[in-house]
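Team,

Forwarding the record for the chain on the shared tracking sheet. I've put the sequence and predicted structure together so nobody has to dig through attachments.
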Amino acid sequence: MSYDDDWPENTMENRRVVVRKTIRPATLDELKQLGEKRFPVATDPWCEKYNEFLKQNPSAKFYRAESPEGAEIVYCRDVEKGVWFLPGKGMGIIQPRGLQMLADIVDAL
């Protein structure tokens, strides 16, 4: 799964609708708990990247949302970065097209 430009527009529109319905502010404590749940092994490279992302932005506003594919999304508008978790399948960095979609949704809140 990717949020890159290779996705058909109807897929992006489906994502936009679901993300708009599910997006909400998230606290740093909530995101730390999510990290503990998603990364049971502290030496996992993704765990280190995720925790570093949170540490570098302790006063930023974060948001959580879901995608139609079942991915959990963590997005920070302040630094224009985000990650997705597809439980049991993987995770990744949200690409530019997905970041733009998230920025548009958050800006409209």
